[in-house]
């Protein structure tokens, strides 16, 4: 694989983008992914805590996974898919091995492939089937500690995690666990 630098030498966002672009170009050929990388924009996120990467795209009316999308119907598209953005999470990259990061990129390329064909994407049966074909996972491993964990009062099972303040964090007393129907106890992660 022709990459601009060694994986272990990546030390900033520009390096991460360059390496990831080069890997995606290689993966497109190796795994026969039907994607147009010239229609992919790139970004690095330092805020994301639950996702290693994401394909951000416009919501298009009438789009359904598995159904060819009529790109001519989108104003100004000239029959070409609208660009999507592959947003890479810096903290995930820092925690993942080269193999895990490459798998993450293949996962995102499946999303790009679905979007460019169907105008939308998801983790349904078609995604799972394609993920197996390109030797990637449907979900990545956790790479950041949640700020809050919510535990079932009865069985002590963790039933929810939250990384940012939200209504659930402030009002968790109003909820019950799915496992036992018991009240929740909040545990805050020591920073």
Describe the 3D structure.
By secondary structure, the chain is α+β, with helices and mostly antiparallel strands. It folds into 2 domains: 7-133, 2-Layer Sandwich (Zincin-like); 148-188, no CATH class. 30% of the residues lie in helices and 16% in strands. The chain is built from 5 helices and 6 strands; from the N terminus they run αβββαααββαβ. The protein has helices at residues 13-30, 90-95, 98-118, 125-133, 167-170; strands at 40-45, 53-56, 84-89, 148-152, 158-162, 184-188. Strands 1-3-2 form a 3-stranded mixed beta sheet. It is globular and about 55 Å long.
Keywords, separated by commas or semicolons:
191 residues; three-stranded antiparallel sheet; Zincin-like; alpha+beta; 30% helix; 2 domains; three-stranded mixed sheet
Give the arrangement of secondary structure elements.
Blueprint: H1 13-30, E1 40-45, E2 53-56, E3 84-89, H2 90-95, H3 98-118, H4 125-133, E4 148-152, E5 158-162, H5 167-170, E6 184-188
Parallel strand pairs: 1-3
Antiparallel strand pairs: 2-3, 4-5, 4-6
Helix pairs in contact: 1-3
Q: What is the 3D shape? A: globular
The biggest sheet amounts to: 3 strands, mixed
CATH architecture assignment of the largest domain: 2-Layer Sandwich
Q: Number of folding domains?
A: 2
For the record, what is the CATH homologous superfamily label of the largest domain? Metalloproteases ("zincins"), catalytic domain
Neighbour order of strands in the largest sheet: 1-3-2
SS field, number of helical segments: 5
């Amino acid at each position: 694989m022709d990459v601009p630098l060694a994986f272990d030498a990546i030390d900033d966002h520009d390096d991460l983008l360059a390496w990831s672009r080069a890997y995606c170009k290689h993966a497109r050929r190796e795994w026969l992914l039907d994607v147009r990388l010239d229609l992919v924009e790139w970004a690095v996120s330092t805020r994301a805590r639950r996702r290693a990467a994401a394909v951000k795209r416009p919501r298009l009316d009438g789009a359904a996974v598995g159904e060819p999308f009529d790109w001519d119907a989108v104003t100004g598209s000239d029959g070409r898919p609208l660009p999507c953005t592959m947003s890479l999470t810096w903290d995930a990259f820092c925690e993942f091995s080269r193999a895990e990061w490459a798998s993450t990129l293949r996962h995102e390329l499946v999303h790009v492939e679905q979007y460019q064909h169907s105008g939308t994407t998801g983790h349904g049966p078609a995604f799972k089937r394609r993920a197996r074909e390109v030797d990637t996972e449907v979900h990545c491993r956790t790479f950041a500690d949640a700020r809050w964990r919510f535990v079932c009062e009865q069985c002590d099972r963790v039933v929810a995690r939250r990384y940012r303040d939200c209504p659930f964090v402030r009002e968790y007393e109003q909820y019950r666990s799915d496992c036992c129907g018991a009240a929740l106890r909040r545990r805050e992660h020591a920073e």
